[in-house]
Amino acid sequence: MANTGIVLISHSPKVAEGTRDIIAEAVKNVKVVPAGGTEEGGIGTSAPKIQQAVEEADDGNGVLLLYDIGSAGMNAEMAVELTETERCHVAEDIPLVEGGYVAAVEAGMGKSAEEIIASLRKSFRLE
Amino acid sequence: MMVMTAEQAVTWVEKTNALIQSNKEYLTELDQAIGDGDHGLNMSRGFQEAEAKVSSSEYETVGGVFKDTATVLMSKIGGASGPLYGTAFLKMSMFLRDKPSVTQADFAEAVEEALNGMKQRGKAEQGEKTMIDVWHPVADFLKNGQNVNAGKLVEVAEQAMEGTKDTVATKGRAAYLQDRSKGHIDPGSTSSFYLFQALADVWEEGE
Fold first, then answer.
1. Which of A4, A34, A53, B46 is deepest in the core (most CB within 10 A)?
2. Whole-prediction pTM value?
3. Whether B39 contacts B142, CB under 8 Å
């Protein structure tokens, strides 16, 4: 069965890729796609770039997006509106590195994006 | 009564770009004071590309010009202004659709749609030291009917921009500075002022 995909959005390509590397050590059965930086690879975020990552991460079971600061959250929402991929959700106010790790572990257990968000909000005491 | 043609919409983007390019350093300075210092560079890259796109294409409608502008700004700006200005132009294009010419009333409603879209996107309200502080009074002013003219538009936008100086930021990067954000004009309000100054120039030429 396909697992929920994870997209890691950071202002820095290095942060997004580095976080992916940390997760890859422990979780092997989940598509984790970094979407860091602008289209030119500078510091920033880009909705079309995130949209591409969402489509790459999707295995038919939906995608969860995590982001770092500032514009990243807005561009994540925009990417979700732009893509035709179904069951995409943005994990709001969840820390990228720690949250991304927990999310990938849970995705590997077959949880949906909605279930992962509920559990992240509990883990990070937002509820 | 002012109207806007597709050709004027292209001129609006070109004139905005010219103002952004000549004030790039100033926008950077404003953003260095209370943000991450990339506003000048981001806006200059975004509008440069937007101008290149709309100047080299043929358009039948104002909506078409705005749609292309939105797409370019969204992908090229890179900072928070990308999704915000992108949303503004996208909402305007969605409202105006295939209208061959746009009346002042149409345009006023389009700007209102843009404002609402940006508020939703940024989860922001008026008075938080963001570009909304300029868009809000401008949208209200445009709804004003026969009293709308180019000179007054610049006045409203400029006053609103200056007003952000005394406001404490509660949204955006500057919010982290809390009281220290006071005493500085908001960079996003300033680029929004240039946008409306360019619009006033377009209207003046059309009179």
1. A4
2. 0.89
3. no
